[in-house]
Amino acid sequence: MIKALQKFGEYILLMFRAISIPERWGVFFKQTFKEIYKLGVDSLWIVIFISVFIGAVLTIQVSLNIQSPIIPDFTVGYITREVILLEFSSTIMCLILAGKVGSNIASELGTMRVTEQIDALEIMGVNSANYLILPKIAAFMAFIPVLVIFSMFFGIMGGYFIGWATDMITVAKYEYGIQYWFQPYYINYSIIKSMVFAFIIVSIASYYGYYVKGGALQVGKASTDSVVMSSVSILALDLVMTQLMLS
After folding, report:
1. 36 pLDDT more than 80
2. CB count, 10 Å around CB of 3?
3. How far apart are CA 176 and CA 197, in angstroms?
4. How distant is the alpha carbon of residue 213 from its chain centre?
5. Pick from 119, 113, 134, 123: nearest CA to 215
6. How many other CB atoms are found less than 10 A from the CB of residue 134?
7. What does the pLDDT look like over 53-95, one tens digit per residue?
């Protein structure tokens, strides 16, 4: 318990150091754009790939499990849309990105720590936490809404493909289902959630990477720990935010 509190205190202090006014705005914006490409744009392919297949699988599963004369066929499109908008494109996608983005950040900062690059920045009088971590937080939080929108679109298109390629549901009924009782607030809800999760992913990964002690083995352990802790935090926050924002 004491060790957990100590780690939490270190995390809070690191975030206070990281989230401060940059000393050089030009350098900050340059780093941020580089991180947008590295953390965000490079993640587009996996978001699109997973979303298409999850949307298709969701449509098949729902279609197979609600075959009943009482339930209208368009319910397949409606349920697929609700699952993708409310949970998959925000929570589940962020859990996946915690593995890709979080481990990348923890490994990068951990390597910089064990090779004494962070120590060199500190000796030169640079706020290393602000210089290294803030651009990553700003970049991923700025780009995560794009990833969420892409995930929603391609997830729904995955279900559309099933309607077009199979006889499980007609395209017309699927289209009616994804339009039925649509609430635009759900898109805003998912984007807000994903931005909070983006901060959690980057900040926790940065903490574990920044405070690595040892060598390559410890860097790998820090990367694994960051993914586990990010995933647990995302699931806990998802419960809280769902209760607050949808009740």
Report:
1. yes
2. 7
3. 32
4. 27
5. 113
6. 24
7. 999 999 999 888 887 778 788 888 899 999 999 999 999 999 9
Rounded Cα distance between 83 and 94, Å, is 15
Cα separation values, 215 from 77, 116, 222, 224, Å:
51, 11, 11, 15
Secondary structure in 3-state letters for the chain: CHHHHHHHHHHHHHHHHHCCCCCCHHHHHHHHHHHHHHHHHHHHHHHHHHHHHHHHHHHHHHHHHCCCCCCCCCHHHHHHHHHHHHHHHHHHHHHHHHHHHHHHHHHHHHHHHHCCHHHHHHHCCCCHHHHHHHHHHHHHHHHHHHHHHHHHHHHHHHHHHHHHHCCCCCHHHHHHHHHCCCCCHHHHHHHHHHHHHHHHHHHHHHHHHHCCCCCHHHHHHHHHHHHHHHHHHHHHHHHHHHHHHHC
pLDDT tens by residue, 123-132? 888 888 999 9
Taking a C-beta distance cutoff of 8 angstroms, is the pair 103, 231 a contact? no
Long-range CB contacts (within 8 A, 24+) of 232-238: 233/200, 233/204, 234/91, 234/94, 234/95, 234/98, 234/197, 234/200, 234/201, 235/91, 235/95, 237/196, 237/197, 237/200, 238/87, 238/91, 238/193, 238/197
For residue 94, what are its two tokens?
A: 């962020």
Round to whole Å and give the CA distance between 89 and 191. 9
Give dist(CA 171, CA 217) in Å, integer.
Answer: 52
Per the model's pLDDT, the better-predicted residue between 167 and 199 turns out to be 199
The tokens for 113 are 């720590």
pLDDT at 145: 94
Cα separation values, 12 from 19, 102, 219, Å: 10, 18, 21
